Amino acid sequence: MDINRKPLYDSEKARCLGGRGTMWQHENQEKFSLLLENIGSCERLVDIGCGWGQLLRMAQEYVSELWGVDESPEMIKRIKRNCPKVNVVTCRANNLQLPGCYFDIAITSQMLHEVKLFGEKSDLRTTLLEIRRILKDNGRYFLLDHLDAGDGEIMIKLPKKEISKLLEFEEKFRFYKADHEMVGDNIVKISKRCLQDFLTKYWSFNTSMESMEMNETHNVFRKSEIVGLIESLGFSVSKWVVLSNIQTDIKRVKGELLEGSFWFRKFLFIAKKL
Question: Over the stretch 57-105, which tens digit does the pLDDT of each residue have?
């Protein structure tokens, strides 16, 4: 990453993310519960791209020594308020200002996709090597992030107001050409990738996060791609779990899947440093 680049999250974006309310309450509970139940015995843990410290706050009773890393000074301020006992460091993930061979567990939760999408081409590999450097031998890396929905189309029935939001999404989205086909009364034929991006991004309309969300995708990693990369860098993958069933998102907007199968849009894998 360019050292002169501003952090992705300025004060306005940080406030926007912190004020999303209960829309993602169930999803966050599922995500953090899954991470916590897999931590087990751990003396030192670092959350890289930790935001305002939600996971760190919950992990305080399980881990002796907690560290939080974020590139945004605004996020760091919130961590210090939420988790006063946590060691906090302001730096970028491709140049971690952390000691080597020190941590039992390193976590990136919905952060690595930003490295891939907004950084330089080499940043993804450099970041993963930095994570390996700071882990003890046999230390574990927890990667939770967005899973590519894959090829294919589905047919879904949506309320009229959601179809209006879909049209607005397609007009604003810039990462690829997003479109759908109307095949009946409120019945939409749409690609799985487009539906996944729509259902997880329209909340940002007319907020400080809109530009960022409309210029990235939530269809980021394929299992074979990310597992292959991690293993090539000196890790052994020990666990792969999928979460965040798209069915939950469809129900949230009172939609109905008419043709095609449900899928999971996030993953957690745990890899051990060899």
Answer: 999 888 999 999 999 888 888 888 888 889 999 999 999 999 999 999 9
Burial class (CB in 10 A: 0-12, 13-18, 19+), 187: middle
Residue 1 has pLDDT above 70, yes or no: no
Tens of pLDDT along 130-163?
Answer: 999 999 999 999 999 999 999 999 999 999 999 9
Q: What is the mean pLDDT of residues 226-245?
A: 97
Q: In what order do the strands lie in the sheet with 187-191?
A: 180-184, 187-191, 153-157, 256-259
Sheet of 87-90: strands edge to edge?
87-90, 65-70, 44-48, 103-109, 135-146, 264-273, 235-245
pTM of the model: 0.91
To 10 degrees, the CA torsion angle through 165, 26, 24, 152?
-50
For residues 183 and 189, the answer to whether their CB atoms sit within 8 Å is yes
Yes or no: say if 160 and 188 are a contact pair by the CB < 8 Å rule: no
The rounded distance, in Å, linking the Cα atoms of 38 and 107 is: 11
Q: Extract the tokens encoding 44.
A: 């030192």
The enclosing H or E element of 232 equals: helix 223-232
- Strand duo 135-146 + 264-273: pairing: antiparallel
Q: Which residues contact 66 (CB under 8 A, 6 or more apart)?
A: 44, 45, 46, 47, 56, 59, 60, 83, 85, 86, 87
What's the chain's average pLDDT?
Answer: 91
Structural domains of the chain sorted by starting position, each given as residue range(s) with its CATH number in brackets: 11-148+218-244+265-273 (3.40.50.150)
